[in-house]
Design goal:
The structure is a homotrimer. Chain A has about 650 residues and is α/β, with parallel strands linked by helices. Chain A folds into three domains: about 1-150 and about 220-395, Glycosidases (TIM Barrel, Alpha-Beta Barrel); about 410-595, Class I glutamine amidotransferase (GATase) domain (Rossmann fold, 3-Layer(aba) Sandwich), CATH 3.40.50.880; about 605-655, Immunoglobulin-like (Sandwich). Chain A is built from 18 helices and 24 strands. In chain A, the strands form five sheets. Chain A has an eight-stranded parallel beta barrel, surrounded by four helices. Chain A has a seven-stranded mixed beta sheet with strand order 10-9-11-12-17-16-15. In chain A, helix 13 runs parallel beside helix 14 (about 375-395). Chains in contact: A-B, A-C, B-C. The interface between B and C is large, with 49 and 62 residues.
Amino acid sequence: MKLGVCYYPEHWPEAQWAQDASAMAELGLTFVRIAEFAWSRIEPDPGRYDWGWLDQAVDTLGAAGLRIVMCTPTATPPKWLIDAHPDVLAVGVDGRPRRFGSRRHYCFSSRTYRAHSQQITRAVAERYGRHPAVAAWQTDNEYGCHDTVLSYSQSAAAAFRAWLSARYVSIDDLNRGWGNVFWSQEYRSFEQIDPPIGTVTEANPAHRLDYQRFASDEVASFNREQIGILRELSPDRDILHNFMGATLSFDHFKVGADLDAASWDSYPLGFLQQGAWPEDTKLRFMRQGHPDFTALHHDLYRACGRGRWWVMEQQPGPVNWAKWNPAPLPGMVRAWTLEAFAHGAEVVSYFRWRQAPFAQEQMHAGLHTPDGARAAAWDEAAAAVKALHALADKRAAGTCLDMRPAPVALVFDYAAHWMFDIQPQGADFDYLQLVLTFYGALRRLGLDVDMIPPGAPLTGRRLVVAPSLPVVEPSLASAFEAFEGSLVIGPRSGSKTSAFQIPDGLSPGPLRRLLPIRVAAVESLPPGWAEAGAHPVRRWLEHVEPNPNADLSVDARTAAGKPIWLNTGRVHYIAAWPDGDLLDAVLRRACGDVGLPVLDLPDHLRLRRRGDVRFALNYDAAPLDLAAHIPGIAEREFVIGDTRLGPAGVAAWIDP
Amino acid sequence: MKLGVCYYPEHWPEAQWAQDASAMAELGLTFVRIAEFAWSRIEPDPGRYDWGWLDQAVDTLGAAGLRIVMCTPTATPPKWLIDAHPDVLAVGVDGRPRRFGSRRHYCFSSRTYRAHSQQITRAVAERYGRHPAVAAWQTDNEYGCHDTVLSYSQSAAAAFRAWLSARYVSIDDLNRGWGNVFWSQEYRSFEQIDPPIGTVTEANPAHRLDYQRFASDEVASFNREQIGILRELSPDRDILHNFMGATLSFDHFKVGADLDAASWDSYPLGFLQQGAWPEDTKLRFMRQGHPDFTALHHDLYRACGRGRWWVMEQQPGPVNWAKWNPAPLPGMVRAWTLEAFAHGAEVVSYFRWRQAPFAQEQMHAGLHTPDGARAAAWDEAAAAVKALHALADKRAAGTCLDMRPAPVALVFDYAAHWMFDIQPQGADFDYLQLVLTFYGALRRLGLDVDMIPPGAPLTGRRLVVAPSLPVVEPSLASAFEAFEGSLVIGPRSGSKTSAFQIPDGLSPGPLRRLLPIRVAAVESLPPGWAEAGAHPVRRWLEHVEPNPNADLSVDARTAAGKPIWLNTGRVHYIAAWPDGDLLDAVLRRACGDVGLPVLDLPDHLRLRRRGDVRFALNYDAAPLDLAAHIPGIAEREFVIGDTRLGPAGVAAWIDP
Amino acid sequence: MKLGVCYYPEHWPEAQWAQDASAMAELGLTFVRIAEFAWSRIEPDPGRYDWGWLDQAVDTLGAAGLRIVMCTPTATPPKWLIDAHPDVLAVGVDGRPRRFGSRRHYCFSSRTYRAHSQQITRAVAERYGRHPAVAAWQTDNEYGCHDTVLSYSQSAAAAFRAWLSARYVSIDDLNRGWGNVFWSQEYRSFEQIDPPIGTVTEANPAHRLDYQRFASDEVASFNREQIGILRELSPDRDILHNFMGATLSFDHFKVGADLDAASWDSYPLGFLQQGAWPEDTKLRFMRQGHPDFTALHHDLYRACGRGRWWVMEQQPGPVNWAKWNPAPLPGMVRAWTLEAFAHGAEVVSYFRWRQAPFAQEQMHAGLHTPDGARAAAWDEAAAAVKALHALADKRAAGTCLDMRPAPVALVFDYAAHWMFDIQPQGADFDYLQLVLTFYGALRRLGLDVDMIPPGAPLTGRRLVVAPSLPVVEPSLASAFEAFEGSLVIGPRSGSKTSAFQIPDGLSPGPLRRLLPIRVAAVESLPPGWAEAGAHPVRRWLEHVEPNPNADLSVDARTAAGKPIWLNTGRVHYIAAWPDGDLLDAVLRRACGDVGLPVLDLPDHLRLRRRGDVRFALNYDAAPLDLAAHIPGIAEREFVIGDTRLGPAGVAAWIDP
């Protein structure tokens, strides 16, 4: 794994660039990402390009031996473009155009903007596409950040109509698919259809889902336009995009399919503050981030990159954008870096080389403070370099450090998030929280997890977990049926058709062959209510009728007799929001049935294997002893650390 | 009492209709309501009517012996109408038109919409007005639902000006009435007056009150237009409207005056989740609904219908529209049905025959699941049929089951809600909560209550309760003075003139002859503050000066000496938000003085008399024994159940 | 000190005026403020003035010996003006014009309104400027109330561009100053710049700060236009403005510089309900107001008036505009009046003579109820008159009652509020709360405080406290360096340049000579987190590096070793949000070093000296004994009260 950094030559005097570049190399960095917001410097006036400074920056960085990640600057169209073409602007849910003055103000559906995005991409690619120092590309920046996928402009409305027309062909089919006979919502032509906002009460969920799908497709096609140009003008360079965390507003698998590798921007403390965890969890991990959140995203984006992925931006200290912005625990930046290694990252790139003294992110830490001194993260990066050398030495000595498929796969479904967001039925039914619940339970068992998209092959897996799959395509149902390992399926799976209707015969729809049950009713339970039973149920409870003729075991019920854990031996269904105990019991059984060994880790100790090396990370602010949790650990050969892990401590040992 | 169901033939294949109809009859249903959202099917293109399917549906249902409630489909104007006439749309408080894509998107003041509403009403009435199967009409659907009474369109502004001009004639009178000299708010003509929105700080309360009155009148006149047509074209059919619960944004008495019977849509669990009760109350009654909320509305709408009323939509299981949507306690749907009987309903109609698999309400339970199987509520409806047969047998045997005027009347005032909403003075001064407090206290005493509008005759009552009457018309004051029973009057009564001014001589204004007091000051108290005393005071406290020359008794004071219970013997005034103990003491005294016997019921046991039969309903999830609460109950002859009430249990006994 | 009252002759029949006037005089009032919202009566039609009624009112009041404070009625432009010139209206952050129907609906930048404001000012001043009864003027009313400083109209945008052009001259300098290279925010001309609203994520803080400065300047220039006219047409009259409490949206020092005296509107109970104090604090002082809030504003506005100040509106009972509106503790209105005296007020004027029975403020108490009877506050005003007579007698007998400079000065910086509001970095970093924390700590020590603007001379002070000064101009740094007393400087001081950038060498920037430290990083801490240590740190913690070569003492650290109290002996820096204990320790040391004697007062007992008389005020609802808190008090000669203070009690004694 290589290290890198995000650098903004345009923010600093040219005289400083060479010194910065050699300091980067000296620290042990390999990659440097530049220019992703520099449009106003590259094209200061319409059609007039100023390449001088950027040529100089590229040459200077390249001369220091650094490999450049060049960016298309399309996340920040300059003011002259907005003034000349106001239709570039996205439009909010309130019907008003977003305004210039920050970033991501463009509408993905603006044909004007598409043209300008391609034009600037072509210009930059023509200039630097074959430059020897340019090793990779990043398209745009953080699609979807600041809730920018959905726009309600005239352009978007027109593109939506075209999208619908292509999907449904006949307006009658659309009316049937959406159930528009309900409330006289029927349309007589595609031209009558508007984006689903401003309605008196909720809009048709099918209408909203199609708008969400359309918008997701718009992101993918916008990105694909840039990629086409980059492939043409910059051959043999990797093309990446830097995804955000906790952003599910478009299908990252689809965008990822066009990339050479995925990357994401990892800000564990900022994401913790913004997340929906209970207050005590947030306080406990205030300086560490949530122990499962970062790893989940590593695994997810590894899947989006089909095995290849980077951390494009790594938090180095306090950020500026959460409600509260504490500093990381000493050692934590190093630990995050090594955790990315353990999960298979190719590169971890710190954001940013030097804290800017001006504008929106002036309170965002970097590897250096604005006065040029080394910040706390510098030492941590240096320590990470050292640990990576130790690992590289081991690899050179023959230890395998290649990523292998994990025995456990978790099916991650962006559309599930969209559907529960549109129709939660219970206000706290949140897909990402549900996935985190499953993922955290697997990790407490010491298991490595691969994320997979719905429909991915399951060969070689021993346990497949689907926290929820509201829409089950027939192909997926068949794959599940053919799979021979343990299968754990969460609530609301198979509860909808792709048209956002309730399937014939009710939930679980196409999964019924696998799961001979019928979900006769569902109920959501307000906070404070625990449906009594050995495993008290919170949030969500289904009324399941097992097929009395099927060979189906009910292994947990509420006190009132409602089955909440049903299984056919190989296939388990959880008919409730899974609480810790229930989920733990189901997963232990599912693992046991296929001979997967499990541990019993505390919530702050997490493991990850890479090849023959196993990593442990202590997310606690207190030390811990691995020997108390991992049998036989004392006999292992350690590459990093030993059995005693300090706060934010990392250990790695050979475990073939 | 008959049972019925809401049915949407347009949602199902025509082939299924006959089977559905016969199943309805078989279950014991009498009424079936149809077509209230079917405009886009009745008039698919402007001016082109498609009667075929509806003719067929009406004939099929009629052939099964069902009595049809036909609806005007005006709650859902179709897209072609909106596109042709955007002025049909209501305008929100933000000044932006509501958009098509759900329901109730029209503006009551749109002259264009008035014309179209009449046109479609006439078309449907001409077609089915004299059809033998059509037994009744429902106008529109749930006026005011989704906060749709107030619209701020140009049409509404123009109509408001005309309304003001008719009310005040002279702009000087309006300026005087509103006190517009304050803050230079004076107008020089009615044309200068806008709706009261968008102001920098609060608008003039008199301005807002008149806008509310105007909007309420618009609902009544809109409804009256349809009624005129229906009376002309469909003689001898009852005309109803289905009111919503917890909706006080227009004067339901005024709309009810034009109807043959009132009806309402009763969703006890949804209303509980949306209500302002403390969390523990909501958890306690999560599967039952609040024990007083439903009954209060039964009594209120019985008053609006001048004795005749239905439940047009009865919740049958989990709904889709509250933040959390649990399932009812087993037996609860039957209990709700019988509770409606006890309160005098003519019909209880379940919503809906079969859960729709598509669109906004696909998660709303029905008597059947979307796959056509019987849902939990089917059994409950069947059990209700059985109980109703037992009651019918008793009636046939001579037991009186006619409703009689209750000894207690509660004066319910829609304008009081408007005024406290406009000028709460303390943020939690909520009229409906205040009414529920009084109503619940009366019911804990085992008393039956009739709701009456301000100004209704009081003859025959023994106790009249007015939770609050900010405006007391002279006629009402006279009626109170002439009344010979006990009178309990709540805070803020007589505190305003009809022009939203403080009356001469201060509160209680025209009630002063009856109540020789002067409210020198009032104060609102934040949550957490209890003004010390034998009856601690929360929320609201008045500084009352009794007339020292009057024969007035002060029976409770705060520790600081402020009178909170004053009475002249016959007339009681509560100068505070009444807490449970104080209110209980006042009501017991008031009852005792007129010889009304009272009980001491727990908060989950409620009684209601109909003729010579008394009903008890257990709102608890645990069983209870009536003998512990009702002296002599063991000797009664039971029509339904016995003295042991299970969860959601209902009993009825002869008590002449 | 004189007493006064706010009176609205236009609200009452002319026949009542003379009687009101003589009752005012009889009560002992000297001043009467009139006409500040009377535009629609003064100029009922465009250009047509109706002076008759106002002439009569002025004469009547004057005839009773009252001194009139005449107002410009510009806070309430009438409807005819708005209809003729809609560009008068302010525009909200949502881009929509505010609407007529309350007050303060004008935009400070509207050139049209500027012209009309001058025209009506000139008309009123010409009419009454030299009237013998007119003793003073109030311009407009409560600038900034209801969040009305910032407007986003076209006029404001144009004026902002002109303001920027004058400030920066070159667009390149603006781009550099704002750091617009960040996110391609660069402008090519001033014409391209819009107000900083509607952006996708936060706008550039420098952009927002300049908009705030611009808007603050607009208030000052608007006010200055009226003052120019009044000085010309009404010589020798004091000109005041009535500022609001808790309003920091413009620089009151700048507006105050044009006035003869400042005044403010003191509503202790309303401000308490609206404030950010913990709920238990709000309940504890519900009927008293917060013990430091009112005094802080007295001291602040005394500074704004350069020693001369009034309370223009004094709360007399429950108000109408807080979420809850309780009544003051008996005696509290008198106590507030005398507290103003102790802090040097020239006049306390009660709002209002008689409660209006109509419009928005009908629930706002006055000295009389709407029926003309005396309200509770009347007795309190009478009692205040009595106490003031006792003081006047003492003064006549030679006791000094002149205000003297306090030994302690607190530097109050409006721009600090703007900057922390724009960039809190931690969501609860609130400048006014920070100032209250310092101010309260000083007052618990029994110290009198003068507020001073940044840059005011420090001569004669023994202790200077700066809760936070993010921008330190070189002149201020020099003044601090030259100062010989103790200096206590709070967090984030010197952390920004005036362009809202991080200074060279980091914080504390220009204070480094004085404080040889470097703030390497800062972090904000969420509620619930206390950074461990002898003085646990909440909200805010800086990572300070002391200059190892400097003579600097670290007197408190966190458990993790971070310095939180550093000092050079004379200069103290608090590198954290100061908690009570830490701040107390620092201030006691700082006082001790300069020989300032301190007390240890409970949080409800507050002292203030005026000349040779010291005042004590009991903010508790229980009595207290001064002897328990003030050594030697028993031997003092009391002018008001004695050592036993009842609830809301006030004492004053000779203490030369």
